[in-house]
Every structure is written in C-alpha cells, then in structure tokens.
Design a protein that fits this description.
- With 305 residues, the protein is mainly α.
- The protein has 14 helices and 3 strands.
- A 3-stranded antiparallel beta sheet has the order 2-1-3.
- Helix 1 crosses helix 3, helix 4 packs antiparallel against helix 5 and helix 5 packs antiparallel against helix 6.
- The protein is elongated and about 110 Å long.
Amino acid sequence: MNSSKQAVQFRPFTRTEHAFQKLRVCKRCGQFTALWEEKCTACGRDTLVPVEQYAKLRAKRYFHKDLAVGIALLVASIFFAHSSQQMLLCGIVGAFLLLPLVLLQHRIVLYEQRRQLIRLFRGRIGQIQEGLGVNHKNAVALRQLSERVCYEMLREIAVLIHNDRIRLQQVALLQSFVLRKDMELTLDPLLIKSFEPLMVRYIGEVARLNRELIKDRTFRYVVFYERRILEMAGGEDILVRVASAAVRKKRYVVTHAAFISRYVRKLPKERIQRLYHIIQENPLEPFGDLADEVKIMYLMEQYKS
C-alpha cells in the first residue's frame, strides 16, 4: 500500500432521479449551486431552495396573481353596483365564477410547476452555468486544504457538468486516497475518451475492489488502448484483472472472448473453472479460440488435482 495515500471516509452521495434535482437557487439573488452550502455564496443569505421548490413557489405566485385579478374584478363589480340587489347578484355570480378558477388551478398545479421549471431552465441557463462555474472554482481552490472535500464537491458538480476535465480531476483525486471495498465507488461516469494512465490505474483498482463496476464501456476502453496499457508498469496485471471481471457474465465472455483469451493463462483457478462451465453450457456461442484454451487449462488443473 502506498503510504502517501490518505485514508478517508466520503460523505454519503445522494442520488436523484433527475440530474437537475441537484440544483438549488437563491430566492434573493438568483445564483445557482449544486453544492451543499447553507448560505448563498453570492449574497450570504440563507435563502437557497431546491429548483423544484422554487418552481412550486413561482407557480403559486402565478395562481395567486390570477386569483387576485378575479377577486379585484368581483370587488369592482360590487362597488359599482347601483343597488343592493345588483351587489348581491354580482357577489353570487362572481363567487360562482371564481370557484371554477380555484378548482382548475388545483387540477393543473403539477403541470404549472413543470412549466415554471422549464421556463426557469430556458430563461436562466446562463446563470446556471455561471453558478456551476463558481462551484467548480471553489472546489479546485479547496484542493490544497482538503482533497477529500474537493473530490466530494467535484462529484456533485459532475452530475450536471459532463466533461473529461472534471472526470480526470476526480480520478486524480481518487488516486490519492486509500480505496476500499466498502466505499461508494463509481467508474462508468468517470471514463474519459483519451488514453490516460491515471484512468487506467483507477480501472485496475476498481477491478480489484469491485468487479461489478467493470461494464461494457470499460471493456471497450481497455481493449481500444490495450497496447498502450501493456507499455505501462503493471499494465498487464490491470488487463488480467479486467479480463477476470469479464468472466462474471456470459454476455461479456462472448463479446470479449478474444480479449480474455490473451490473458486467460494468468487468470485465477476459480475464474478458469467458471469460464469452463460458461463455455460448456453454451456450445453454440462464438467463443473462438478461448474455448480451446480454457478446455486445455481446465483439464490440466483436473489432472494436477
């Protein structure tokens, strides 16, 4: 274990159904944030609310405005009535007209909230980008003080900003920590397009700690840059770990049979046994040379035992 790495405990990461639910907005100055600060960093007020709550407030104001206009017209009709009978009639008619408006507002409240949310995003996209930019600058500035908090901030921002710069910053920070099986690690959202040794080493760590996170995108990345990975110190060991992770599903074995066959002789015994059973149970699948390699290795192990 590298003694220079830090042992850390990450703050729990809250997953949301939609990415925009990470956003909060200041009711006073309108600045957006994807982070957890209690007070707005722009105006210093404790007026940050989730964007959905903000849209709900705007929908209420919109409804209240319509209702206020209706009430004002009702009051005006009563005020300008020429007799008590006209006043009573205007009051009754006005009340009957306001009732459908209130009922309609109640029925379309969810629609109006969604409409206000869409208007918010369309009309203030520049402010949202500016707020996320401030979040990113604050996160990077905090790196010297606390790499852990910097990573946690970038992890939140990355839900809304998808670019290789932020992904690589997260991967670089993760390489400075002692990673454990009990950590809430991720891989697919961090994959970048270009070859990067930091990325490859992180893939190797994930393959060692939690092979369930190794999926199609990672296999494609590793196969595409296989030659360059082999040139790295410890690169072959990383490829063996990834090949071992592929053995957990028949689909991965079929899709990446050629890749697995290049490292099959270095796989653990239990992985060879699993491969053998997958191949034997699916004789019609195109395993290619992998089938013969695995059969030979399996029989050799049986002979030894």
